[in-house]
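Pilot study result, target chain (1037 residues):
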Amino acid sequence: MDPVERFLQEHFDLPPKNPSEEAQRRWRSAVGTIVKNRRRRFRMVPDLDRRQKDEETRRSIQEKIRVALYVQKAAIIFSDGASKKEYNLTEDIMNAGFSINPDELASMTSKHDMKAFKMHGGVDGISKKVRSTFDHGISTNDLDKRQMIYGENRYAEKPARSFWSFVWDALQDMTLIILMVCAVLSAVVGLASEGWPKGMYDGLGIILSILLVVMVTAISDYRQSLQFKELDNEKKKIFIHVTRDGSRQKISIYDLVVGDIVHLSIGDQVPADGLFIHGYSLLLDESSLSGESDPVYISEDKPFILAGTKVQDGSAKMLVTAVGMRTEWGRLMSTLSEGGEDETPLQVKLNGVATIIGKIGLVFATLTFVVLLVRFLIEKCLTVGLFKWYSTDALTIVNYFATAVTIIVVAVPEGLPLAVTLSLAFAMKQLMKDKALVRHLSACETMGSAGTICTDKTGTLTTNHMVVDKIWISEVSKSLSSNNSLDDLNSAISSTTLNMLLQGIFENTSAEVVKDKDGKQTVLGTPTERAILEFGLMLEGHDTEDRTCTKVKVEPFNSVKKKMAVLVSLPNGTHRWFSKGASEIILQMCDMMVDGNGNSVPLSEDQRKNILDTINSFACDALRTLCVAYKEVNDFDNDAESPTSGFTLICIFGIKDPVRPGVKDAVKACISAGIIVRMVTGDNINTAKAIAKECGILTDDGIAIEGPEFRNKSPEEMRDLIPKIQVMARSLPLDKHTLVTNLRGMFREVVAVTGDGTNDAPALHESDIGLAMGIAGTEVAKESADVIVLDDNFTTIINVARWGRAVYLNIQKFVQFQLTVNIVALVINFVSACITGSAPLTAVQLLWVNMIMDTLGALALATEPPNDDMMKRPPVGRGESFITKIMWRNIIGQSLYQLAVLGALMFGGERLLNIKGGDSKTVINTLIFNSFVFCQVFNEINSREMQKINVFHGMFSNWIFLGIIAVTVAFQVVIIEFLGTFASTVPLDSQLWLVSIGLGSISLIVGAILKCIPVESGGTSASPNGYAPLPSGPDNI
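Predicted structure:
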């Protein structure tokens, strides 16, 4: 490992996710004082001290909320005799038609005031006072009134920064401040010695250059901030189901008002304070609000629901009683500032590179100033003596100092870490268009290094548009794909059996039939539940028997138990359990089955074997299998769970969920990119294998394993097994977590994981990149994820990987380009100062070069879109060098060429080009400056490809790159031809322009020659940084 990489590993190595505060402080300390502009350099880096204060504030508020929630009984008993605050109904409230004060309503919920709750008539009485009904909800015509009286569902946020604040930040650059002082001194001394206006030119030129640098920097930073603001707004877009105007609607949480009837289900974050209307097994996680980890059971006896809590289990309808700043959650969020997002590993690494170069630059700048000053003093001593000083001498020293400071400006590459944010902002915006919302900056760059993707099956690899394709009932298996299939099924089974089946479908479902705004009936729920309920609705037309019964107890679907159950009270006074879930699990619970006449008959071993064969045959057809069963009971325990034996099997469903178009190609692209795709699903192993083979995931040498078998393996067995696992079926969320942990720990893989359920949160958090599903995913899963896949499509995940690789490679290209400019600018000025006693590149010229290589260079190279070749290279592994040997080859080769050219012009230019006359020195210096800039322009084109010879591939479709090259060249012409008085240049004739452009263009030939020099890779990839060896055909050149 080279010294630079060793230094970066020691001080600037940061994990991509959940970095420790110690690691964050370590690199900040290592940066030290070699920072030109701390405000700009660390703008995208969190303020750890502020974050610590915010955390203390959060804990303090949580403690107050905890006391309010858990010590309330004692407080109420104590305060019963005390006088209570009086709430009056104002004229505005009464005119709006409401009968309860907003503050009283909010206080009742937040303080869990049961006395006030009962005084107002419970949830029924309060709903009347806010003019809402449980079935109809509120009227949309009242929204403005409700927002005016009860407030909007928003909390106070810090206003966005203005453009001028970014200008101010850009002006905080210490070197620019010193240069401004030098410019003023230069102008004052110049006026005194040379008069107006000639004496102003040098100073004014520096000031104008500084203003140009500041404005370009501010515009770039401001546009970045707008992009991040736009993405931040996308992150906050959360939708919730409500009943309004008698129909079920999906609205933004920000449109929620007091009186809304909200439908809560597992994984939702409660968007406002409210009261429980009715529901089943509602369990809330209040840890984010109160700090208490124990979940809270909500019922009619404990009806208070607080904003910011999460639904851990069950479902419910809630009446909204307080929104926005009237909720404890709103007040908590408004007191906390945005502590800033964690810095990304690339940002930290490039801060390290900038620190190293900055220290070198500082040494060179100091040496340059000392050499220039010593030479000047020696010449002065030999000519007029050290005791005679003129104003021009002061001007010369000021100019020397300005040149030295400008060398620091060029040498300290502030743009390196900021180029990462620019590239990430660009990538994130493009990914948003491609249906991927990146929640954390680091995820975008880390995804480029992903070597494994652990993906769900349902909805990610498949379309999530499910239909019941086959059914087994009363030992009859029927395909439902034909038009007459329902009539055939109806004729094959008795009315008693049909009645039992329909009861099992309609009573034990989490889906529901609702009316939309147009009055049409729509089925809402998970795709599986929708498919079964839609099948039941179609079948219902064939049956007219009354199945009225009352739900007594509901156990929602649980990914650990892999089943759901409901207890119903029948019209005859008896009770019946219905259970539905994974076919093998439900079958184990059954010892009876329904025969053709609708009677319960014992389940023989032969029948059990036949049923298992049916399940496997359905699964081998890539169908998802579910069983429905029932059990009659005389009595039950309210606190006990549903029984696990003694059930009677009703039917087996085979549900079709086709593979998404394009998934097979996307998996193939992953394999060619060195990314292993592993399917982790809760489905039957045969279903999983059939889908995996269709997608190209399961190969002949791969293994498909079930979760129970996997979790019983020892660590040694897992070490041998995990590399071969391509499919894991019947898995629990814990199995996914174990797989991810071992892939990262044992094999040092960079792992991306998809998830949609609440129980997937630990695996999403543990992985390097957590990918939550935007459609099927719960809010809890999305909150734990780094990227939200808005269309739930596997192809979108591959797009994230492509852009991640593009970000990494773009930053490498930019670093290669910038380091070349750094080396050449430093060496040429220092050598010239030592030999000739003057610097060929003036302060104004160096500022322009700095802008080319910093802001404009970053815009040009850091915003290159991805290409297909990026997915033909293996990913960059953990711990690989960022500045590769290939990059060093290109940097050193181009630097030597540029130094040779500029050195030849500096020391022999007049003789070689036959330039004569009194201004020959100025002409040569102008030619050096012009050639230097054109070398950078062509090297910028060179840097588009670090390994391939054809650097023009895709260039003419990249308008940003072409625009920046055009602007750079155009402005260079203006500087040379028209701004000579400020930039210390003279107009060049056409021959010298051709010389400048010709010398610059030779960089392309030099680049092609350099790429033919073989370089050994120091990393773990098969080839350097994932690049293929030198091409053998014209398409790969």
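One observation from the pilot: The mean pLDDT is 83. A full batch analysis is planned for the follow-on phase.
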